């Protein structure tokens, strides 16, 4: 089983930036697909971004393209989500997920963007 721990959420003004981190333990991280999802109050959880084991190929939701960047450091077993030009509608709990079937999840970290 994989343990995923997110960190560095917080409160930021619209237009600001945050960088989320997700540390993984319990398996070979370098062969593991990683991703970020988010869930806003009253809404379903939605896909944000994902990255393959090589770190070369990444995918993004249309709502965050050009503003968010996912990356990974396999030497540190960590995946990052750099979020720029944040908007109030980005407010949500952000979850780190891993595995081809997204079978592993972190506990989530709150991101709040004030207008």
Keywords:
115 residues, mainly beta, 4-stranded antiparallel beta sheet, globular
Summarize the structure in words.
There is one protein chain. The chain has 115 residues and is mostly beta strands. It contains no helices and eleven strands. It has strands spanning 3-7, 10-13, 18-25, 34-39, 46-51, 58-60, 68-73, 78-83, 92-98, 104-105, 109-114. Strands 2, 4, 5, 6, 9, 10 and 11 form a seven-stranded mixed beta sheet that branches. A four-stranded antiparallel beta sheet has the order 1-3-8-7, with no helix packed on it. A hairpin with a 6-residue loop joins strand 5 and strand 6.
H and E string? EEEEEEEEEEE
Mean pLDDT: 93
The coarse silhouette is: globular
Radius of gyration: 13 Å
**Structural class per helix/strand content?**
mainly beta
Largest sheet: 7 strands, mixed
Helix content: under 10%
Using DSSP, what is the number of strands?
A: 11
The first-to-last residue Cα distance is 40 Å
Task: Please describe the topology of this protein.
Blueprint: E1 3-7, E2 10-13, E3 18-25, E4 34-39, E5 46-51, E6 58-60, E7 68-73, E8 78-83, E9 92-98, E10 104-105, E11 109-114
Parallel strand pairs: 2-11
Antiparallel strand pairs: 1-3, 3-8, 4-5, 4-9, 5-6, 7-8, 9-10, 9-11
Give a brief rundown of this model.
The protein is mainly β and 115 residues long.
